[in-house]
Write a structure and sequence with these properties.
By secondary structure, this protein is an all-alpha fold. The protein has one domain. The protein is built from three helices and no strands. Helix 1 packs antiparallel against helix 3 and helix 2 packs parallel to helix 3. The longest helix has 38 residues. It starts with 10 loop residues before the first helix and ends in a 10-residue tail after the last helix.
């Protein structure tokens, strides 16, 4: 059984990435052109941060969210952090409930 778990990225990192992505709102007109560079970079960082298994669909969503005008406000990194955090917490609780039976052999 493989018990290796990918380390959860920090919530602060995810919030900072979302703030950086939403920064184009502060630069009218120019900001939307900056999104052409930021969208693929952000999607790639998203994929590296959350891994291929969970990050692929999220990175595609992140790319679309960053490239479309007016949607930069969606905090995709932070949403994924919470989703991953609570799904891992739920999995951990389920593993504790479903402990394998312990067999004791006495002579």
């Amino acid at each position: 059984m493989n018990t290796t778990m990918k380390k959860q990225p920090s919530l602060l990192f995810c919030i900072l990435m979302d703030i950086l992505g939403a920064g184009s709102f502060t630069l009218p007109v120019v900001g939307e052109f900056l999104d052409l560079v930021w969208a693929p970079l952000s999607a790639f960082i998203f994929l590296l941060t959350f891994g291929v298994k969970k990050g692929t669909a999220g990175s595609i969503f992140n790319f679309v969210e960053e490239i479309l005008p007016g949607t930069d406000i969606i905090p995709t990194f932070t949403i994924m952090w919470f989703w991953q955090y609570f799904s891992e917490k739920k999995n951990t609780e389920n593993m504790k409930k479903n402990k394998p039976y312990q067999v004791t052999i006495t002579r």
